[in-house]
Amino acid sequence: MVVGVIVAGCGLVLVMGGGTADPTGPHVADSAAAGSAAVADGRGAPPTPEVERATRPGEPQEILIPRLDLRAPFVAVEAEGEVLPPPSDPATVGWWAGGVSPGASRGAAVVAGHTVQGGGGVFDDLHELQGDDEVVVRIDGRDLQYRVASLTTYSKDELAANAADLFDQRGPSRLVLVTCRDWDGDAFRSNEVVIAVPAG
User: Fold this and answer.
1) How far apart are CA 136 and CA 82, in angstroms?
2) At 98, which CATH number?
3) Considering the entire predicted model, what is its pTM?
4) Please, are residues 198 and 173 in contact by the beta-carbon 8 Å criterion?
5) pLDDT bucket at 63, cuts 50 / 70 / 90
6) Mean of pLDDT over the chain
7) For tag attachment on the chain, is the N or C end more exposed, with fewer CB atoms within 10 Å?
8) By residue range, what is the domain housing residue 72?
């Protein structure tokens, strides 16, 4: 099973291949934002349908990050044929609906948000987060409390080398927030990845 990410413009999409009905797996469609696509491959395996049903609480509705004064709705991002597009609205966050939900007993709940050169992207200020900052996800009528455990800027090659661990669907329960960074005038060259773990 191959799990990876493709960063298209200023958004992120998750790509899976092998072990699915379509052995080629989903691929990415370029976003409307400027930038080139970068592929990061890993080896994390998704949950089986039985595990997914047992661990998925529901669909998240809203994310709140007090330090950034951020409050934004979720959009479930699903594969369309072989394509898993990022959110079209830069003011929303995209939750990978093919993976686990926030609050699942295991696995990385992947949340992608846009950074927009000049402002207007939901995750423009993601790099300002610090360790132990609060992240709240509203789901099933309750608030899930997370704390920031790490914030790392990865080059495309570094993201490829770490994708299996970052997006593993069978590892410890966590929230993975991803956006683009390092605009060079033509494209975003890096990715900001925030890992948040359940508080308490």
Assistant:
1) 31
2) 2.40.260.10
3) 0.76
4) yes
5) very high
6) 74
7) C
8) 2-198
Distance CA 178, CA 159 (A): 11
Confidence of residue 65 (pLDDT cuts 50, 70, 90): very high
Task: Please compute Rg for the chain using Cα positions.
Answer: 15
Residues 6+ apart with CB under 8 A from 48: none
Sheet with 38-42: strands ordered across: 11-17, 2-8, 38-42
Residues in the chain: 200
Range list of β-strands (E), 35-183: 38-42, 60-65, 70-77, 93-96, 108-113, 134-139, 142-155, 174-183
Pairing of strands 174-183, 108-113: parallel
Q: Phi first, then psi: what are they for 170, rounded to 5°? A: -120, 0
The answer on pLDDT for 111 being more than 50 is yes
How many separate domains does the chain show? 1
Q: Is the pLDDT of residue 5 over 70?
A: no
pLDDT of residue 39: 28
